[in-house]
Amino acid sequence: MSAAGTPTATLALGSLRVSFERGGASVEAVREVSLAIRAGEVLGVVGESGAGKTQAFMATMGLLPPNARASGSVRFEGEEILGSAPRSLNRVRGSKLTMVFQDPLTSLTPHLKIGVQLAEVLVHHRGSTWASAERAALSALERVRVPQAQRRLEQYPHELSGGMRQRVMIGMSLLCEPSLLIADEPTSALDVTVQAQIIDLLRSLRLDSGLSIALVSHDLGVVAGLADRVAVMYAGRIVESAGTAQLLRGPRHPYTALLLQCVPNLRAPRRARMPSLPGSASSAAPLGPGCAFAPRCPRASDRCRAERPELRAIEHAAELACHHPI
Amino acid sequence: MSSAPWREAARALFANPGALVALIVLALLIAAALFGPALNPNDLETLDWRHVAANPGLAHAHWFGTDRLGRDLFVRTLAGARVSMAVGLVAGAVSLGLGLAFGAVAGYVGGRTDDLMMRFIEIMSGLPLIFFVIFMTVIFGRNQLALFLVIGAVGWLTTARIVRGQTLSIRRQEFIEAAVASGAGTPRIILRHVVPNVIGPVIVYATLTVPQIILFESFLSFLGLGVQEPSASLGTLIAEGAGEMEAAPWMLLAPGLFLVALLVALNVFGDGLRDALDSRERR
Question: In the prediction, which pLDDT does A282 show?
Fold first, then answer.
């Protein structure tokens, strides 16, 4: 599907590029990413560390550090928001377009009570009165299933566990009924059991409210449990995207296939070594003319090293960038 | 029940015997400066010709003795302490306010703004302090409030540097990023998320600057640049007393001991406050 053109998309990234200036040299984090998230859809974005998945969404939120340059387009509900002034961005950030970060332990301001932090979002964006904002904060905590919500409103962030704080962050991000929630590794800092609870929570919220979610993760298991569609990123580009079931059952890109092999399998023979990908990925390293994955790819040919495969539409509304698909 | 970080810091402070004693001494000294002069029939400027340079004692109404003009030292010491404390308070508040605002903006906004603001600080701290104060007293005349403000305006440079350093260390933390992502503008982030989180170490620094400021005012008054007759500060009293040290040591001892007690109490209290706030950070 041609991502940027879809008029109904909640979020459409078109040829997004992000680079960082470092000591005169330019380092490319996102080389070219086009994707679209439709209303009510959950898109999983997976890739190794450094694949550029976080930076693509930081650019979307206008959260890039000062030494970063972004080009291309970011259309949110049909409106171009890339490079727009903070003042106009602040009208959508935090209300229609929200983000939950990786580390819930440091995402809440330490010196404000939970209730105040939640209520402030509504007072700020909606101009609600404090009294009504506090009632809304209470129901937001109940919605994300925080036990003893009334008591939590009076507590400070350090009095809550990590999982509880992530629930609070999610509750905060939902206060203004956003159309898109960007969840950047929302469970990576949490225990496995708490991870499952958070994923459950996101799934039920999405069913209740028709919210779109961009779920960024390096964990295919997390993505598989929630996403309708998955985009796999490597070295700043999307190399394959497809419906979740289709991608997990029949990956076409060798990188996707190798990633799937690395998911631990309880039924594997006990003494077998954990499979792992040889080499390391760094999107920052300068690339040759060919496919970025070619040096680590078991199927690579001379053509792969000479000519970069373009991302093209294949059957079942999937996309693939590979000369020798599986 | 929930417990505020501030309340916990207060509990840690009261659990520290040194800080508690310092706090009590401080309270006594402040009470003495505020209410002490009313206990004595004498006033600040009346000359008692029958008791010139009198010894301290309870035989006459001059409990701390008199100076060489026959003015009561009990009243003058406590009234002088009042002026010194006011200098510490006003100048401390000025330096805290200016430093907090300047440092937080420079540290959070960063880039060229930060460069310009910090160069300004460096130029200011390159100016000789005494020259600056003399210059200002010439412009503003011998106005006590102006003197307070001038001392504060000199003291804020270090506060601004400390605030900027603290701000830099938190500005890339996720809660700041989360605040930006939730649509808060720059002024709001500085006031609501930066300043409250750097204020702990800065308040501690401020309690340690207050004694410095009091000392600096004493020094200026000693040079004749500070508080003018007939009013007094601890500095002017010590200067006068130092001249009569051999003949009438009480003229030096009364204001000198008061100043020492005040400075020690403030420093110990500041230390205790730092420990109390630090233990909160460690947990």
Answer: 57
* HSE-up of residue B281 (Cα within 13 Å, Cβ side): 11
Contact residues, chain A, for B115 at CB < 8 Å: none
Say which CATH number the domain at A15 has. 3.40.50.300
Rounded to an integer, what is the distance from CA A128 to the centroid of its chain?
A: 30
Question: B274-283: per-residue pLDDT in tens?
Answer: 777 665 444 3
Helix axes B144-171, B111-126, angle to 10 degrees: 140
**Residue B282: predicted pLDDT:** 41
**Are residues A83 and A32 part of one domain?**
yes
Residue A241 β-bridge partners: A231, A319
Q: What counts of helices (H) and strands (E) characterise chain B? A: 11, 0
Cβ <8 Å between B175 and A109:
yes
- Using CB atoms, which residue from B2, B110, B197 is nearest to A66? B110
Q: How far apart are CA B32 and CA B40, in angstroms?
A: 12
Q: Do residues A79 and A194 both lie within one domain?
A: yes
Cα–Cα distance list, A181 to A76, A210, A305, B178 (Å)? 12, 11, 38, 13
What single string gives the DSSP state of each residue in A270-286?
TTSPPP--SS---TTS-
Same domain assignment for residues A178 and A255: no
Reported pTM: 0.76
pLDDT at A281: 61
Task: State pLDDT tens for residues B19-59.
Answer: 888 888 888 888 877 877 767 666 777 666 676 666 666 66
**Whether residue B230 has a cis bond before it, omega within 30° of 0:** yes
When mean pLDDT is compared across A215-219, A232-236, B142-146, the lowest value belongs to B142-146
Tell me whether residues B110 and A125 touch, CB distance under 8 A: no
Is B178–A101 a contact, with Cβ atoms under 8 angstroms apart?
A: yes
Asked if ipTM goes beyond 0.90, one says: no
Size of interface A-B (CB pairs under 8 A): 81
**Does the CA dihedral B92-B97-B102-B104 come out positive or negative?**
positive
Residue A261: pLDDT band with limits 50, 70, 90: confident
Range of the domain at A292: 251-265+287-326
